[in-house]
Every structure is written in C-alpha cells, then in structure tokens.
Automatic annotation (TrEMBL):
<keyword id="KW-0812">Transmembrane</keyword>
<dbReference type="Pfam" id="PF00563">
    <property type="entry name" value="EAL"/>
</dbReference>
<keyword id="KW-1133">Transmembrane helix</keyword>
<feature type="domain" description="GGDEF">
    <location>
        <begin position="263"/>
        <end position="394"/>
    </location>
</feature>
<dbReference type="Pfam" id="PF00990">
    <property type="entry name" value="GGDEF"/>
</dbReference>
<feature type="transmembrane region" description="Helical">
    <location>
        <begin position="7"/>
        <end position="26"/>
    </location>
</feature>
<dbReference type="InterPro" id="IPR001633">
    <property type="entry name" value="EAL_dom"/>
</dbReference>
<dbReference type="GO" id="GO:0071111">
    <property type="term" value="F:cyclic-guanylate-specific phosphodiesterase activity"/>
</dbReference>
<dbReference type="InterPro" id="IPR043128">
    <property type="entry name" value="Rev_trsase/Diguanyl_cyclase"/>
</dbReference>
<dbReference type="InterPro" id="IPR029787">
    <property type="entry name" value="Nucleotide_cyclase"/>
</dbReference>
<keyword id="KW-0472">Membrane</keyword>
<dbReference type="InterPro" id="IPR050706">
    <property type="entry name" value="Cyclic-di-GMP_PDE-like"/>
</dbReference>
<dbReference type="InterPro" id="IPR000160">
    <property type="entry name" value="GGDEF_dom"/>
</dbReference>
<protein>
    <submittedName>
        <fullName>Diguanylate phosphodiesterase</fullName>
    </submittedName>
</protein>
<dbReference type="InterPro" id="IPR035919">
    <property type="entry name" value="EAL_sf"/>
</dbReference>
<feature type="domain" description="EAL">
    <location>
        <begin position="407"/>
        <end position="647"/>
    </location>
</feature>
<feature type="transmembrane region" description="Helical">
    <location>
        <begin position="135"/>
        <end position="156"/>
    </location>
</feature>
Amino acid sequence: MAGFKKLIFIQIISWLLCVAAGSYFISISFDSAVSDAQKNAQTTVTKYINGLTLDEISAQNVKQSIADGKTFSSFTLRDYQGAEIFSINSPTRLPMFAEFVQSSFNSVRPQFAVNDAADIKVEFTLNIQHLAEQLQISLFIVIAISAILVIIPIILMQSIFYQLNKNISTTVSDIIDIYINQNQVDENLDTALDSSRLKTLGKDLVPSFNRLSHFLKTKGEDIQSAAMTIKHEAYKDVITALGNRNMFVEYYEKNIENTEQSTFGSLAMIRCSELQAINQSRGYQKGDEYVKGVADIIKHISGTYTGSQVFRLNSSDFAVVLPHTPLKEAERFGENLQSRFTQYQQNQELSSVANTGIVGYEKGKPLGELLSVVDNAMSMAQSKQVNAWHVQRETDLVNNISAGFGNQNWRKVINEVIESKRVHLVMQNIMPLGKSIKAYAEVQVRFKTEDNQVLPTASFLAMAEKLDMAIEIDRLIIDSSLEKVKSRNLSEKFFGLNVTASSAHNDQFVIWLERRLLKDTHIASKLVFEVSEFGLQQNIKASKRFIDMVHRVGARVTVERFGVGLTSFKFFRDLKPDFIKMDASYTRGLEDDKNNQYFMRLMVDLAHRIGVSVFAEGVESQEEKHIIETLCLDGVQGYYIEKPKDI
C-alpha cells in the first residue's frame, strides 16, 4: 500500500510537470502568433495608406470598416500635425489564462503606420480575442489529455495492486496452513518447507518460513524458559527457597496420584511447634531464622534418601516425600529428625522445635485423603512429647476413620494436664518507658506430659480450643497463677494473664472468675487480663460484660495483638480497656518502615486521648526500641528487653 501511494504521488507530479510544460509551450506559441498577427496588420495598414492622402481617405468609411472591433481593439487616425481626426476604442476582455500570458509576455503592443506623404498617421492595437480563445482551448485540451493519461494508469495500477495483494495473501495463507499442518504432525517447529505444493505456491517464501521456524523455535524455548523461571519463583517459598504448597500438589498429582508406573513411599509432615510463640515473644525476624533452621535440618536428614522432595506447605508445616521408602525405614527418618530437633532446641533455648507425622502412600492415593491421615499422625505426635514423631499405619485406622484418633489422644492428654495441674509458669516483663507508666509482667504457661515432657504450647492451646476445653485450661492457668503469687508473696507485683475469647464470652466462666477474684481482692487489683483484639470483636456485648466485671473487682484489661483487625476507636470507648498491646508484626523492621511508624504514632495519640496506655511486643533490637521510644509508646516487651523466666 505504501508503494502504491508513492506511485500515485509520482503520477500526480508527472501530470503537473506535463501541464506546466504544455502551458509554457502553448504560451510561447500564443506570443509568437500575436507577434505575427501584429506584424501582418502593420504591413497591411501601411500598404493601404502609403499611396493615399488625407483628403482621399473617407473617415466615415474607415469608421464603418473597423467599428465592429473584430480587427482592432483601438484605432486612431491623425493628420500631419498629429491632430486626431477620429478614434475608435472597443476593448475586449481576454480569458484568464490568455490575459495572464499576455501580461507576462507583453504580447499585445500598440502599432504605428505613416504614409509616404507623411500626412497620415495611424495608431492601432490589434484585437487578439480569437487567438486567446484558441489558447484557452489548447490549454484545456492539454490538461484533459494529460489528466486522462495520469488517471488511467492509476486505476490500472490500483486494480493490479489489489489483485497482486490478493494473490500474495492467498499464497501466504496457503503456505501458513501447510506450515502449521506439517508442524502439528511432526511436533517440530524446525520442519523444512520444501514440499512440491509449497514450491508451487511460492518457492521464494520457503527460506523466509524456514528462518521464521527457527526464530519461533528459539522464541518458544525462551518463552518456556521464562515461564519455568516465573513458575519456579511463584512456586518457591521466599524464606527457605523450598517449593511451596502449589508445587507440592503438582508434584504429588504428577508423580504419585496420576502416574502410570507403580509407586509407593512415605510422606512426612513436620510442624514447627514454636513459630507462633517465637513471633510473639522474640519477633518475626527470629521466627524466620527458626523456620530456616528447621528447614536446614529437614533438608539435611532427607538428603540421604534417594529422590526425596521437601516442600513448605504453609508458615509452620513442611512436607517430605520419601519415594520407595517403607514405613519401617521412615521410622528411622523420624528418629533422626527428633534427635536433631532436640539438639537445635538446646542450642536455641526453645521449649520445643517441631513434631513429625508419617504415613505411607501408594499410586492413585488421593491427596486430600492422605493429608487427612498425616494430619492425624501429626496430632498424635504432638500429644506425646517434645519433638516427637508418630507413624500412622493403615492397620491403625478403624473403619477407615482416622480423624478421631488424634482428637481422642489430645483429649486424654489435656484431661491429664488439668487433673494433675501439670503447668509450668514463666513470666516476661514489660519495660515501662516513663516513670509514671504502670507496666506488668506477662505470665506464660508451659504444659507437661506425665513423663515431664514439655508439650508444644501453641498446639496444646489450639487443640484445647478445638475440643471445647479452653475454659478448663483458662481456669487452670488462673488458679495456678493466683496460687503461685500467694505462695511466693508476690502480691505487690503486677501480672498479666492471657484469657481466650471463648472463655471471656462464656457467662459461667465470667461468674466463676468474679467469685475467684473476690476471694483474693488484694491480688485481683494487681492482675491484668489479656484478650486478643480479634476475639473481643466476635461478640461486643459479651466482651463489654467481661471487661466491666474485671473492672468491678479492681483488675485491668489489655487488648493484645492490636492492629490485626479493623477495630474502630468507638469500640474502645465503649469497652474502655486499660492497655493495648501492638501486634509484633508492627515492630518487625520498624526502623525502616515509615508506614508502620506513622500508624503506631497515630494509634498512640488516639489511645492517649481516651486514657489507654500502649505497649509494643516482639522488640528484638536496640534500633526498634529506640524508634518505639521516639513514638511515645508507654512500654516495650520482647527478647531484647527480657527473656521469659521462672516466677
């Protein structure tokens, strides 16, 4: 199309040049014809008056002969003294182009004639109307003919271009169809386009399509490589660089559930039992280091098994696939993990590290069913001891129902803890950031088995909540804490006790707690009950009744993990807590996060206006503590300030 437009432009320029050249030559011819006519007219007039005298010329006859104005546009007769005898003027308007040529060349000029006796003088201007009309007609003919000569090729070229483009499009379309069909059959983008039909359609295009094939193959490889890189990044866990849950699902479906070959092996799930506690007490950075440490242990132990695969399913769970490994051999894997976890626990001063559930798998086993069984094995392991493992066999499953085993075992363990009051209390102080600030020490609980093994706290509390036993646990913690305060004569110190939302919203628990605190009013005034922001939001009316009761007995209330939900300050004005404790996620990297700094400062200003003190938890560096001090918070808590210690 661009070539066609260029051709049209050339044709138009050629036409204009032709018109210009024709006009020039016609103008020259017109000027020459006018000059010849004027010369002939002068010769004729001169011959006519040469043998005559003034007396012999009849002025009336001359007037009649030239009055029509066809010969002369002006005529003046003078005597020997130059006096005008008569004059005739009959000017005519020339056509536009003739007028332009005449004025440009000055073709029409006055002519003069004198007789031999010199008594007759004639001045005249020739009428060139007929020559001008001929000039105009010639010009129109030139323009018309040249225009026709230009337009006809353009029309022909347009038709030729259209037909040519149609033929080319049809040829390329046919070649592309053959190209695609060949590559669909051969599944090879580098297929040579050298068939006889392709050569017939357009052999000149064959090399281009071979280059296109190579280009597409190269680009296809690049795209596949980029897609694999993107997929790998999307399927990779950022902290451990292991495959995430999506990669695990894809691996299982491809290599186990839907594989054509017979396969079997063992699947282990490892759960980091202390991640939540570390995040809250030491900060998220320490939590990430803890997860990396567990991942390194898992990769090291599983690396001795051929074809093993390790994935991080979520924040606290890892999955390990041990192909062609029977459960008997997988037991040794569990023992090795427990040994390394125990060593890591001692080095890092942790209450526990992780528990392991192990099950067997075979070809065609649905992933959802397998995960249900391994989760049950995990529950069994958590209820045993620190860093314990448990293998769940098919023979252990009664009527193929596995979910109840872990729950039943946990219920038994929790009941034993409650009946035997096997709780160990530690405390972690909140450091006040002002002389007039009232702070306290948060009481934290560790639960033990009958073998005096520490159970994973987060798992224990989660299972207690799941089995509707949280109220009994809260009663146990409160009773044990009050007895400890009384026995150690610590009634002058302030202590914080955690209460689950389900207990705070339970009327019977609230009645029990009020009566229990009234028995020791001097201790009750030193207690601060911590309830999560999210839990309080679940039932505003019940939360208000609980807080009002706590205030009646002289105790105080802290809203912990503040900032995770979307609570408005109208909510706080209605409930009237005494303290709020910012979630540890706001402390993490606070020195570099201007948004968190702004949010915390805003919360502090608003809280202080309604008389609420603000604490920060999870403080793990001097920089974080310094920033918190500049934001005017009232207190800080974390491993940098103080580690949990026995009461």
